Amino acid sequence: MMYLLILFILPLSVAIRCIDCTYNGTSKHCNAGCKGDMCGVWKWNDRGKEFIRQGCISGIPSARIGCRTNQVGASLCLCNDFDLCNTQHRSVSTVPTLPIVRLPSVDCISILHFHPIHKEADDFPLQIESSHARCHSDYCHFTRTESSLQSTMGNLSISLCSPHPEFEFDLQIHAHPLRALHSNFCYSIKTTKETKEIQCICSSKMCNRNLVNAMEEGPIQCYTVDGTEDSAKVDKSSLCYGDFCFIRQSEEGRFTKGCLSIRQMGNEHHPYIPGNRSIFGEIQWLCTDQLCNHDMNRLDRSINKKVFTPIHLPINGVGHTSFVVSISFLIFF
Question: Which Pfam families does the protein's record reference (predicted)?
Fold first, then answer.
């Protein structure tokens, strides 16, 4: 005899409608709006002009609701208390209020080191230490670029304060090539077979001194493509290994493929899981099957290999609230 059990689970899911606008100091451009887990408004100044970016954030559960202001006066407020909550003037002093998210304040080392791979130059590595070997920032950074290109063959290591302090928050919202990197982790990111970039972001005194000489890659094989308008484009000879394969779609609609490995710098476990993430118009998809970033169909199959499949059903077709219905079939013979 066969029994068919259908299990319905009905947790409540909320999608917030957000303002999606960009102000570049002289003109403002707005899209129709977007929906996300939370809304954001980011403000910064550049050469005397104020810039404002409003948009959606999704797939980043560790992002904290509230407002933070960094050491150069740039601010980022995240909210989910009502639709279109990310108004241009939203801050900790507006009603309803948002909590303050305090950022670290640390001393960092500032040094550049280039070690060429050419044998004839191997005994003469270049090391440049700035006249101000220490700097002060919200976070310390360490970047190591390993290149096998003939023109730039070598390893370049840079320890410094933030190279773009207006983007410096607990989420590195404008990090390249992947936005929304979390602090207190090291990342190995590869988008071409010739070049690998290691990025470490930390928040304790002088934590970026001699941080990483090498970083072990993860076990998942991925394709690499550095910027294309075709999401299905691959070069079968250009492969890499990581903890995740990814496809990134920029705000301009261009696709980048590569591999991502993550190493923690403290006791906190990294918050990355297979699925999609979006922040201010950039979309990222992470998957953990071999070569799963070949195209969007293969990536979707990898991400959606779950026992419970969420189905979003609007209530009366109105508003932003929806039930998530998960259906599981359990068959006994």
Answer: DUF7622
